[in-house]
Each structure stands twice: as structure tokens, then as C-alpha cells.
Automatic annotation (TrEMBL):
Entry's Gene Ontology molecular function annotations: transmembrane transporter activity
Organism: Mangrovibacillus cuniculi
Stored InterPro entries: ABC_Gly_betaine_transp_sub-bd
Domain ABC-type glycine betaine transport system substrate-binding: 29-291
PROSITE patterns reported in the protein's UniProt record: PROKAR_LIPOPROTEIN
Protein name according to UniProt: Glycine/betaine ABC transporter substrate-binding protein
Gene3D superfamilies: Osmoprotection protein (prox), domain 2, Periplasmic binding protein-like II
Gene Ontology CC entries for this record: ATP-binding cassette (ABC) transporter complex
């Protein structure tokens, strides 16, 4: 019995010691992201920059999931920050539509207000690049479509493959197909990191490719552009729980120092280093920050 009492006291002291030693999970800023290359890199850019500029503790939970998982995780406080795209926040989360002629700044303002009112989270300043959609296909596929409208006239003879989430989003396949009268003969679902290989290997004819993805060039894919401006602007920005900004008063100012610091070309180059050269996302993030003179 004495041994049991001694063991219990020891455990209590150990737990108390952990709580007083700064190991409390509530004292750590938790950053996460989606399950594709760019979203594996961006959390580390935020994390490394915060740690270089403050004394805050930060942890990165890589690839937690898509917007349908990250948004409730943010609401519950399971995560504190992730990078979202303005058009996704507007249509997939707030279930609102971009208005004709609405500028990127106007969309960001609307998204920020909606998140603050509904989710107790806010959007900080955009990082500088936009990642929108094009519809990519093999150069040798005989498709030859410069616009989505061109592609629609050929879609009945083609198959379409997209990420699982693309079929579920408000700004995804169904509304896109309706806007352009796409009638693809077959639809397939892929992991977003596999769909580029799928179109390259002729498993599918057309994919919704990201404009910051270097595999468009590396796999020599051609692509059609959104000539009706179906998709809203998709500028990337950190989304942060408001409670965390209150808890860490330097955080907002520090993250906003990254505003406009990542161009589309720089993001595509970082993606290429991971996807094509096999480099580690965290090291790519650190190298970018150092080369840009943002950290030492």
C-alpha cells in the first residue's frame, strides 16, 4: 500500500511539475494546414517566423485535412491558425457568392467580417500570392482549349478527375459544370497530390490544377483559363482565432509582417522543391525565409 501511495504522489508531483514548466498544451500556438504540398510548407513559414520574432511556443500539425475539417477545428480551438484562400472562405465556408466586379480587397473585407461574426476568427493580411484554378490536360491529348468555354464544347468526349473535396465544395464541380455546361463523360476522384500523375499517365483527361503547382510545367501540361470568372479571387492569408490574438498580443503584428512577402513564382518554386526535388517542406520554408532576409 505504501508503494502505491508513494507512486500516486510521485505522479501528482510529476504532473504538477509539467504544468509549471511551460509544457501546458494551452501555452502553445497550434498551426495546421491542408493535405497538399503548398499547405505543408506554409504552416512552417508561419511557425518559423513567429518563433524567430517572439518567445511564443509554436507547434505544427501537418496535413490535418481540408476546409471542412480545418474550419470546425479552428472553431473548437483544436488549432489556432491555418492559411486559407479568400474565395474558399467566401463560398465554401460562409456559403456566399462573389458579386460581379467585386475586387479581391472587397472579397477579403467581406470574408474577414463573416469569420469574425460567425467563427470568432479573423483574416490577417494576405501573404502575396493567389492560387486559383485552371483546367489542365496533356499537351498531346488533342484537346487544344484556351478557355473553359472552349473546353466545354469538347467535354462530352473527355473524363474529369479532381480532388475528393472538389466534388463537395460550393465553388466546386457541380456549380462549375452548370456555369460552363460541362458534360464530361466520366468523373473520377483523386488525392490532390496524385491527380497530376493521373492526367500525365492518361488515367483521366482533365484536372482542376492549382496555378502555383510546378507540375503543370514539369509534366508539360496545357491548360484552359476561367474566361467567365466563375472562380472568385483566391488570395492566401493566415486565419487566426481571435482568442489567440488576445492571448498573444504580438502575434497579429508579427504575422502581418509577412504580408505581400510570397509571390506566385516563389510559391510555385517552393512547391517544385518538395514535389519534384523531394525536399522536406519544413526545410524549404526555412530556406525561403532566410533567402528572403526575413529570418537569420
Amino acid at each position: 500500500m505504501k508503494k502505491l501511495i508513494g507512486l500516486s504522489l510521485g505522479m501528482m508531483l510529476l504532473l504538477a511539475g509539467c504544468g509549471n514548466g511551460g509544457g501546458n498544451e494551452e501555452d502553445v500556438i497550434k498551426i495546421s494546414g491542408k493535405k497538399w504540398t503548398e499547405q505543408y510548407i506554409l504552416p512552417h513559414i508561419l511557425s518559423e517566423y513567429i518563433q524567430a520574432k517572439t518567445d511564443y511556443e509554436v507547434t505544427v500539425d501537418e496535413g490535418l485535412g481540408e476546409v471542412t475539417i480545418l474550419t470546425p477545428a479552428l472553431e473548437k480551438g483544436d488549432i489556432d491558425i491555418y492559411v486559407e484562400y479568400s474565395g474558399t472562405g467566401l463560398e465554401a465556408v460562409l456559403k456566399e457568392k462573389a458579386k460581379e466586379g467585386e475586387t479581391a480587397d472587397e472579397i477579403l473585407k467581406r470574408v474577414r467580417a463573416g469569420y469574425e461574426e460567425q467563427l470568432n476568427a479573423t483574416w490577417l493580411e494576405p501573404l502575396g500570392f493567389e492560387n486559383t484554378y485552371v483546367l489542365a490536360y496533356r499537351n498531346d491529348a488533342g484537346i487544344d482549349a484556351e478557355t473553359f468555354t472552349d473546353l466545354a464544347t469538347k467535354s462530352g468526349d473527355l473524363s474529369f478527375g479532381g480532388p475528393h473535396e472538389f466534388y463537395e465544395r460550393e465553388d466546386g464541380y457541380d456549380t462549375l459544370a452548370e456555369a460552363y455546361s460541362f458534360q464530361f463523360k466520366e468523373k473520377k476522384s483523386f488525392d490532390p497530390n496524385i491527380m497530376y500523375e493521373a492526367v500525365k499517365n492518361k488515367e483521366v483527361d482533365v484536372i482542376p490544377a492549382f496555378t502555383t503547382d510546378a507540375r503543370i510545367d514539369r509534366f508539360e501540361l496545357a491548360y484552359a483559363k476561367d474566361d467567365k470568372k466563375f472562380f472568385p479571387s483566391y488570395f492566401a492569408a493566415p486565419v487566426v482565432r481571435e482568442e489567440v490574438l488576445e492571448q498573444y498580443p504580438e502575434l497579429e503584428g508579427v504575422l502581418n509582417e509577412l504580408a505581400g512577402k510570397i509571390s506566385e513564382d516563389q510559391m510555385r518554386e517552393m512547391n517544385a522543391k518538395v514535389d519534384i526535388d523531394g525536399e522536406d517542406p519544413k526545410q524549404v520554408a526555412i530556406n525561403f525565409l532566410k533567402e528572403a532576409g526575413l529570418i537569420e
